[in-house]
Amino acid sequence: VSVEAVDAVGTATVELPFVLDATAPTVRVVSASPPRIWVSEAATLDVRVNGARRVMRATGPGAMPIARIERLRTLVVVARDPAGNVTTFRR
Q1: pLDDT score at 18
Q2: In 3D, which of 45, 90, 87 has the Cα closest to residue 63?
Q3: Bridge partners for 65 per DSSP
Q4: CA-to-CA distance for 77 and 56, rounded, in angstroms?
Q5: Against a cut of 0.90, is the pTM above it?
Q6: Among candidate residues 1, 4, 39, the one with its CA nearest the CA of residue 19
Q7: Who's near 81: CB < 8 A, 6+ residues apart?
């Protein structure tokens, strides 16, 4: 983004980087035992697995284990990226 201000004295310009992210993160199950999920980008994950709630943070794309759960029976993941895009995954 570039902002230009002009007055009688002269012109001043300020440039700042701008990134538009309108895509919600993608979540999928990689493995049910041991439970691992994959997320497409950095996100905060509110995870309900087998009735237990966990908050996890993905620093980038990749697979993540779900700690202290041996086998995946039910799963709901709400993923929110830094831009505020949200997706809900249910299995």
Answers
A1: 83
A2: 45
A3: 36
A4: 10
A5: no
A6: 1
A7: 21, 24, 25, 41, 42, 43
Q: Are strands 35-39 and 43-49 parallel, antiparallel or unpaired?
A: unpaired
Using the Cα atoms of residue 79, residue 52, residue 59 and residue 30 in order, give the sign of their dihedral: negative
- Name the token pair of 16: 């700042």
- pLDDT value at position 1? 87
Contacts by 50-57 with C-beta closer than 8 Å and gap 24+?
Answer: 50/74, 50/75
The residue written with tokens 């087998």 in the block is: 50
Which pair of structure tokens corresponds to residue 63? Answer: 């697979």
Mean pLDDT by 10 residues, the chain (91 residues): 92 90 96 96 97 96 95 96 96 93
Mapping DSSP to helix (H, G, I), strand (E, B) and coil, where does residue 70 land?
coil
Tokens of 31: 């493995």
